[in-house]
Design brief:
One of its GO terms (molecular function) is 3-oxoacyl-[acyl-carrier-protein] reductase (NADPH) activity. By secondary structure, the chain is an alpha/beta fold. It has helices at 16-27, 39-50, 67-78, 105-131, 157-177, 201-204, 215-226, and strands at residues 7-10, 31-36, 57-61, 86-89, 137-141, 183-188, 236-238. It has seven helices and seven strands.
Length: 242
């Protein structure tokens, strides 16, 4: 499927999977509004995409721990478009360490704020633009850490808390926004390989049953979900962990 008529917002697209999403969706024709905590990081990815011949890509700064920054991001997007078709909540700070005492208070606050509060406020800020679309989708990269009973990650307890908050938010959001035609799609992957989409590894990374989950497969799940007819609400993707 091509996405030539889609306008897509992606948070935390300055690196890793957010960058992958921005590059691949632009390759498929989407107009991309990408953000990163620093404008310089967002502009680097924007320039990479423009170097591939895609002109409809825009870079914004957005600190998901700062409500004013989130509002400014939405305002900046609204100055360029009257609608958003897909909002991808990719941003959430990862915090390592299975020992609760290993992280500072500020790290705990930053982790929960970026993943939990940041996701809620991003959807709130972009909802008016989503409601202007005839095909609105909210896609949230949660994590297996947001699944009840999951314990196999070495992520810090604060990261588990942030992801559990995202899971609870998207669950109720899916029910409350459905009457307005907004689909809410959540993904719960375990740790996965994320090869550079501009490298040879993108095509050569093994993707057999014994291999770890890849960014390619997660991307294909996102594309599959948003490409479905509007009566098809795929609420969540859960993945078995190798």
């Amino acid at each position: 499927m091509r996405f030539d008529d889609h306008r897509v917002v992606i948070t935390a697209a300055g690196r890793d999977f957010g960058r992958t999403l921005a590059i691949r969706l632009a390759d498929l024709g989407a107009e991309v509004f990408l953000s990163a905590r620093s404008l310089a990081a967002a502009e680097r990815v924007r320039d990479e995409i423009r170097a591939r011949g895609h002109r409809h890509v825009h870079a914004h700064a957005c600190d998901l721990t700062d409500p004013a920054s989130i509002r400014d991001f939405a305002t900046g997007v609204a100055q360029r478009t009257d609608r958003v078709d897909i909002l991808i909540n990719n941003g959430a700070r990862y915090l390592h360490g299975p020992d609760l005492l290993s992280a500072s208070d500020s790290d705990v606050v930053d982790t929960i704020a970026s993943g939990a509060t940041g996701t809620v406020l991003t959807v709130k800020s972009f909802l008016p633009l989503l409601l202007n679309s005839d095909k609105p989708d909210v896609v949230t990269m949660v994590s297996a850490c947001g699944t009840a009973g999951h314990h196999r990650s070495d992520a810090h307890d604060a990261f588990y808390a942030a992801k559990s908050a995202q899971a609870g938010f998207t669950e109720i959001l899916s029910k409350r926004l459905r009457p307005q035609g907004v689909r809410v799609i959540s993904l719960y992957p375990p740790d996965f390989d994320n090869p550079d989409p501009l490298s040879e590894d993108w095509e050569s990374t093994p993707r057999k049953a014994k291999d770890a989950l890849t960014a390619q497969s997660i991307l294909e799940c996102v594309l599959f979900a948003v490409a479905q007819p509007r009566d098809c609400f795929i609420k969540a993707f859960h993945f078995e962990q190798v």
